[in-house]
Design brief:
two-stranded antiparallel ribbon, homodimer, Dna Topoisomerase Vi A Subunit, Chain: A, domain 2, Helicase, Ruva Protein, domain 3, alpha/beta, four-stranded parallel sheet, about 190 residues, 8 helices
């Protein structure tokens, strides 16, 4: 149990022992519910075939929601960015999760990301605007530029989040207000 | 799942989301094994009735081991301290876990700790020496002093870990070498 806990991000062998002891001391209040929650997550949560979000239903609740704007598609790097935008509550369209950004250094090419799927989803789809809500990092902006080029034949309006996202910062670390402002002032 | 993860020591809402995503992306490699390990721990691990250690067997493996010194009892504050001493491999006797230290500030009195049980275990038991391996904090040393007094009628030798444990430091944070030296040079 400790070895597995030590594999979680941000935890080492010592903090894993601390967590394990904390769990063993709170068996009914924490250990059993957590074991059940993890088991349930493993059994029920899958990646949405449409957008790449995690949910217990297929397609995910965001894709299945009938009252969302069908003409706007928001492209995000990863699922926490989607969660951050949903928490901000400023976007009511659909999402597309890339699963990362292009990175020559890490050997991540267009074929490693969900870019071809994005292009086919947009081409002939109901979308009139694609918002590239990628992190304001070098890799994020390179990816945004590449995707904008790929989407050119589809004839949709391609926008980016407004300046307001601090340069070098990551989407998941922003407060909801900044995120909402950046979304409204997109250009 | 995220709410429960956020209750673990050292984790907040943001790191809990990060851990949850990490788990969902490694379903077969980490999420399923971890869920099973936690479930198994909840079902099988109990606190030893003799010493207070956590184990899948009753009494625990340390209490049940036939080749350990029956005449020396080592009193520790909590289970991680027992684990630290076992990792150091310098002690081959039995253990007694107090479950904390006396603290006027936190309202922890002798009745909240496993002290009465320790006294009855030592009185008329096979032990000739009791080692008080408590943290070198004010509360730890106060507790050691109190226990030494309580054990006086039992007529056993009561020792403490040698200086070598840095004053103000905690047992679980020491390297194995320092811990072994401190144990050997007990006075």
């Amino acid at each position: 149990m400790i070895e597995l806990i030590a594999k979680l991000p941000g935890l080492g062998p010592r903090s894993a022992r601390r967590v394990a002891l904390h769990l063993l001391k709170r068996k009914d209040g924490l250990l059993v519910p957590l074991a059940e929650a993890l088991g349930e997550a493993a059994a029920k949560i899958t990646q949405c075939n449409t957008c790449g979000n995690f949910d217990t239903v297929q397609p995910c609740a965001v894709c299945a929601a009938p009252n969302r704007d069908e003409t706007t598609l928001c492209v995000v790097e990863d699922v926490p960015d989607l969660w951050a935008l949903e928490r901000a509550g400023a976007f009511r369209g659909r999402y597309h999760v890339l699963g990362g950004v292009l990175s020559a250094l890490d050997g991540v090419g267009p074929e490693d990301l969900s870019i071809a799927k994005l292009v086919s989803r947009v081409t002939g789809g109901p979308f009139s605007e694609v918002i590239l809500a990628l992190n304001a990092t070098v890799d994020g902006q390179t990816t945004a530029h590449y995707i904008a080029e790929q989407l050119e034949p589809a004839g949709v309006t391609v926008t980016r989040l407004a300046h307001g996202v601090p340069v070098g910062g990551e989407l998941d670390h922003l407060d909801d207000g900044t995120l909402a402002t950046a979304l409204r002032a997109r250009r």
